[in-house]
Known about the structure:
69% helix; 0% strand; mainly alpha
Amino acid sequence: MKHLKLIILVSLCSLAFGCTAAKQNAATDTASIEWRIKSLEESFLNFREEQRRQADQSTEKAEEIKERLDAVEEQIASLKSDASVAAAPDDMAAPPEDKGWVTDLKPDEDGWVEGQKPVPSNPTAQSGEEKPWAQVPGPPPVIPEPKVVKRHTTTKKPVVAKRKATGAKSMYDKGLAKYRAEDFEGARGAFDELLKKYPNSDLAPNALYWKGETYYSQKDFAQAILTFKEVTGRFPKHHKSASALLKIGMSYDRVGDPDNAIFYMRALVEDFPQSEPAKLARKELTRLGG
């Protein structure tokens, strides 16, 4: 009888262990499926973002080409106008009247030939042949140098870009200052304003990451996870994505989901193996048994 009870007890323990293992496997499979779906969603968001960025670049290039064409047309029109004016200057507009052979030389000056007959004063007695030497050619026309058309539109663009960069930097510094002062709501407002006004700024990934840190500091781990995932989705190659993956794993650990925590820590180690967050992730994986 004792042996029978022992056998039944061992069977029940084996069954319970098998159920627990099945539950763990099911949870892991569910987490894997969820990660695949989220990866597809993030890939689609990246594709849409790249399309929008390429469209913006195409528009900017088209505007730049149009401005350059307008400037070239202005230069050509200016050159044509200057060339037409130089072709007919005022002092050569009307040829001088042909009055025949004219000389101012006197007998006591060089060039006088003794015995030369005086030129008759009656123009009708002169020869009708052309006398090209009778007209003293004037100086050659001076062609002015082409005017350089100043492109005012091109000088404005760097100024605008500089103001944008300055505005984004100012908002970013303001948000960090508020975060360090533990004004998490104010910091989040500054980061949101930066992301709205300057979505393509180089500081956008940093601002989005620190926005997630405001939620993490307030222990709103669910919202922190969503915000950090937005960092990895929009900026997968940015160095802040490594920190975001670490905080996603830590947030899952805080809400009691070690499977997802291990999953994201492993993703961090695989994608950014040499980063500082990866070193912390390895320690967390050791602690979590992953």
